[in-house]
Amino acid sequence: MTRTVRRVATRQELWNGNRETLRGALQPDAPVRWFFRTHWQRRRDTPAQAAAHPHLTLIRLRTPAQAAAWLRAQGSPAR
């Protein structure tokens, strides 16, 4: 969502001169509408789905800094 809003606001070029527009961002199949349509339901359902697979380790990384720290701890170079 943040990326789409930033691309619309800054008119960032995506590829071959294409740019996201507000009109495009608000179309029914656009990421912004998808986010608002699905976020809360997915937020409710994800813990139950994870609990159904107790053999898996769930790692929640909420910020880029947390992701970078986790990658460093795994021995992977962070970008």
Structure description:
The two termini are about 20 Å apart. This protein is an all-alpha fold and about 80 residues long. The protein has a domain at about 1-55. The protein is about 55% helix and about 0% strand.
Low-confidence stretches: none
Q: Main β-sheet: number of strands, strand sense, barrel status?
A: none
Query: What is the CA-atom radius of gyration, in angstroms?
Result: 17 Å
Query: Which of globular, elongated, flat, extended, rod-shaped describes the shape?
Result: flat
Output the number of helix runs: 4
Helix share bin: 55-70%
Mean of residue pLDDT values: 85
Number of strands: 0
Structural class: mainly alpha
H and E string: HHHH
The N- to C-terminal Cα distance equals: 21 Å
Strand content: under 5%
Oligomer: single chain
Features:
79 residues, mainly alpha, single chain, 4 helices
Which secondary structure elements does this structure contain, and how are they paired or packed?
Elements: H1 2-10, H2 22-25, H3 31-51, H4 64-74
